[in-house]
Amino acid sequence: MEKGKSVGWQQLPDGFPWFEGEGKFSLPAYSEFMPPPRLGYSPLGERDHFLFSEENKYGWNISELEEELEVKPGIKHIALQIMHNIVKLGKKQTEYHIAGHGGQNLVNNPYWPEELAQHAGTLDHERFVSFLPLALSRTQDDKGRVRWTLFGGSEQGPEKVFWKSFYSSPENELPAEKFSEFISNLLSNVYNEKANSTAKLLSTGFRILPYQTDIQLPSWTGAYLVNDSSPFDKVRYLLTFKPFSLLPDVVKQLYFSGKLVLLPFPGSLVFWGMPTYKKLQKELPLAMQIPLLKLVARNSGHEGMRVPQAGWIHEPHPDLKATDFHKDLVHETYHRTHRWQRIHRHEDELTQQPRLARLIKVLFSTDLETMGLYDKPMAKNCQLWTKEFDLLIDGTRATRKEIIKTEATLSKGGLFGYRFYFPPMQVGIHEIYWHRPVVAYMSNNNDIEILPETPLGYITAYRTDVIDLSQPLELWPNLLKRKPFLGAIQYFNSKHDHFSHQTAFNIINLFDTWQMLGKQPLTSEFARHLIRNNKHHSLEQWIDALAEKCSDEKVLQEIQTEIKKILEPQDSPVLLPDAITYSETATRIFEENWWNDIFYLAHGQFTNKDNADCVADDVTLNQLTHRHRDLEKLGDYLIERHRKAISDAGMEGKAFCGETPFEWRTDFIFDAFGGWRHNQEGSTYERNILVIIPGKNRNEAVVMGDHYDTAYMEDIYDKDRGGSGARLSAAGADDNYSATSTLLQAAPVFLKLAREGKLERDIWLIHLTGEEFPSDCLGARHFCKALIEKNMKLKLDNENSIDLSGTKIAGVFVMDMIGHNRDNDRDIFQISPGKSVQSLKIAHQAHLANLIWNTQTHAWNAGEERKGCSHGLRSADGKQIPVIAKHISLTGEVRTHYDPHSSIYNTDGQIFSDIGAPVVLFMENYDLHRSGYHDTKDTMENIDLDYGSALAAICIETVARVASQPMES
Length: 969
Prior knowledge:
By secondary structure, the protein is α+β, with helices and mostly antiparallel strands. It has four domains: 59-194 and 270-275 and 429-479, no CATH class; 309-420, no CATH class; 484-565, no CATH class; 582-964, Zn peptidases (Aminopeptidase, 3-Layer(aba) Sandwich), CATH 3.40.630.
């Protein structure tokens, strides 16, 4: 952390390292609790220099993509829905969405007293101008997408948010002109009043009546200020957030007569005066966000902002009469989603494959039929309260006991309010909200309009341990307006792109990568692998073809020029380093060993290989060949293989293989899962298998990992596909023994390098357990938790262990499904880095390893062994190893977070990325819709030996390169 006095965002990491120590850092399954995105300072990462800049200690940078593609369209969509209800209230039309059951939200509401309610619908001059302060933050979903999300109305209240908008730090006011420009723009658009200066505003009768005495108004507001005792006969426009019931009688009468306009419309403030939610706020500090949220329909954030679902549940009860609640406010089903859905990340999952379920079951049920193959109860991401607005559960903080108690309460029947609550972004122990005012009104044509260029609000950071609304750390949004980024978004048509904004993402990805890599020129080869375009086109062809998609010639020329500036000159010589490991891996014996190990792991003695095995339902038990889990026996086999490799290399006492044992613990009771149940009974435990290969610096390690469990087969389970409902483990040839076999082949290669003193840092080979559902990245979560808490230990036997807690992770390479060459898009694989700068740097090493391999295939294929060989063929029966084929060149697409086809979210790699570890996923060119994934066909018939062994070799070379690089000074 920076030394000296901390101000602004520098205070956010105060308390680091708060996460060190046993039990300090929670990492539950994302399917049971979707955690907050950790930004700015991640537990294992450095400061995010994009988010925070030294030049602006109180600034929070908002990227062009966030503002233009998420926030702006999202605000418009949200504001229209809210304003629709505000106008209805003001016109005394149907108002139950705001009023609540029996009108309870408006009873004793100071912003909607009876005297105002009686005039509703009669105020012809009312234009319903609303200053709606929205509480926004970024959340993560089950596809790994981090997007701006509506939490509701600002819990800080409309007056504070409005006036904080005219500051840039706690003491620095924006110029008075910013305020006069905004008010002038408002009056001009809404009332056709022309006043573009302070003097003209005063002459039009614009004044300000403050309400809360604890809010500091900018000094230049003094010219406009009035108080309750002031004469109001010359006031035409009164800006006030004072409840209507507390306004001077003269102001009320002038308003009713149409001689005075209240800004904002007093009815638009009712959300902050509801006694119901004020009561709930005593137990749930952010409860005042909820009334506004309930007016907006759920949205995935596919185009715009994410909106979680909120509403009421009605569970039938004899004592609850139908007149006690309004049926239109009850929303008791939920569209379930999960990360294994076969849809792309750029698609809206809420419009596809609808899977509606009763809300009470969605929240609490662990019944096998309710959960299906990929669902878990969601109570941890939900807040619930009674009809009387007493809190039942705040899911993010709920214990198992509280979850069970709440489920029992709902099962007795009644009316209950809820909102799904996916935690806001966090920096350290602070959760972050952006309070942004939205200004809307009704036009002369009775259309709802959103005023452009409105104040941007401010940002609050609350400590997560005790949320104190009165003492937040304050920051201010800083909208970035970099010309190439804005130009790419605003002027390039994506009509013929494969996914929305593909061209803009390509352009931005190049500039972003260039900046993250220290503004060093990008090679054309690397740049070409960063963009998604016709694979037969060169980078130069892509740059030229931008003209076909740009609507502005000047912008086109500027962007083409800027792209060429960040590239190395075309005539620069391509100098590739020497290969480190290909002499060991570009061989027929490597291919045969790789194939044979996959065959044995997939089709040998190991059958029940999901962590939940065996599931205690009759249909499953009746189809099993035996009723015990084979992961224990498989783990023993992997340890034996690695220990033999260590012995054969003469590295005993220097290299080690053992286990990192742990227990499968959850907040829910999954007693139908045999593996989970045996963990609770103490008859078994979970474990990662870890190999330590020594380098010169024992304080750093490069990690290479797989997962050695397999998934349940969808076609066996799914009754709509002819299945029986049984949960049977897949053979797992591709997912994921193509990777497990690679680790087995890698061990002797790395041991040899270690023996020869060629490794600058350690290499850890880790077989992770529990990646598949229902354990859901169990091994990766335990491994990451141990890294963060600094209590990593390798158990060698019952008496001996090695303390690894002081080791820094220099890079993590996760392999998941690397053995299948996609039929309709061949010879491509993905190099998918996490979100950190260091992740991108080690992805570049993977790119180099790929280029070295491709360059050398020509010489290898000219040799005696491969001369005249053709492309490889799959085994017809999966038993016979394919004949020798020529080495193939592969295209490793570097799929950053801009690329919706990056699959890192669907793997253990997501967990590493989220904690800030430098990570890269190696995966085949994954086809969502092919057979051979999570089904009966994940067998040797779908393994491509030439493709998979080449990709395995590239993975090994990459790890060797990162482990062999000299230490940074």
